[in-house]
Amino acid sequence: MIHKVAAFYQFAALPDYRELREPLRAFCTGLALKGSVLLAEEGINGTIAGAPEAIDAFVHELAHGAMFGGRLDDLELKFSTADAMPFGRLKVRLKKEIVTLGDAAADPTRQVGIYVDANEWNALIAAPDTLVLDTRNAFEVAMGTFEGAVDPGIRSFGQFKDFAAEQLDPAKHRRIAMFCTGGIRCEKASAHLLARGFAEVYHLKGGILKYLEEVPEAQSRWRGECFVFDERVALGHGLKELGLRQRDKDVTRDE
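The structure corresponding to this sequence follows.
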């Protein structure tokens, strides 16, 4: 059986996120879905897998169903497949943030960087005055990244603000192009940099996964594998399963 995998997020006001946990868990259980979903007052973030029709029903409920009442009508969604179920169980968790940065000024509902589609990314990062910044942790970067990208050398995304304070300068770094696996970390990171006075901040819409899905390998500036936080371990161009390395059990789940 081929399993359909949905990675999704949206920053949206969910003041009732605690009350949403059990109805969402019950809905997923009824569809025999497995994976991880994070709920917070600032929105939703998750990756789940199941039968194709079950995933479609889940996505429809999020975007159009009564449970969220139309508040998730702008979901960032990416679909892929897995030969075997990539999750052992279903987890629906309550969090302070759907991706942890720890900066109250970084509010993606107020301001984020400029989105760049996958087919425009190569031209942006090839420009000599662009600082290309990988916002993922060191383990992920070691598995694969874009040509010429700066590795912040962080163990978890929460350390990004320290890297930015120590290594980035609004006067020197006039144009920054950042990326992450699916896009959510860049929402927070770009909001953080804009709040600190950086004028021109771009980020790859849909993240590496969208780039690998849409950009032909012959034209790609991506090198290596893209680590994913499920049992597939890594994906390549066309979002093909690689699974070439063993998971590092200590890797922080940043996305």
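Residues 17-30 form the longest helix (14 residues).
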